[in-house]
Amino acid sequence: MSNSKSHVSQPTNEPVRAYGPGSMEREALRAKLKELRSTKIEIPLIIGGREIRTGALEKCIIPHNHQHTLATYHKAGEKEMEMAIEASQEAWRGWSTMPWESRVSLFRRMATLLSGPYRDLLNASAMLNMSKNVFQAEVDSACELIDFFNFNTWYAQEIYEQQPLYSPGGTWNRTEHRPLEGFVFAVTPFNFASIAGNLPSSPALMGNTVVWKPSSNAVYPAYRIMQLFMEAGLPDGVINFAPGPGSLVGDIPTKHRKLAGIHFTGSTATFQRMWRTVGENIDNYDGYPRIVGETGGKNFCLVHESADIDAVVTAMIRGAFEYQGQKCSAISRAYIPTSKWEQFKDRYVTEVASIKIGDVEDFTNLMNAVIGEKEFQNITSYIAWAKASDDAELITGGGYDDSVGFFIEPTTI
Question: Which candidate in 328, 342, 393, 409 is catalytic?
Answer without folding.
Answer: 328
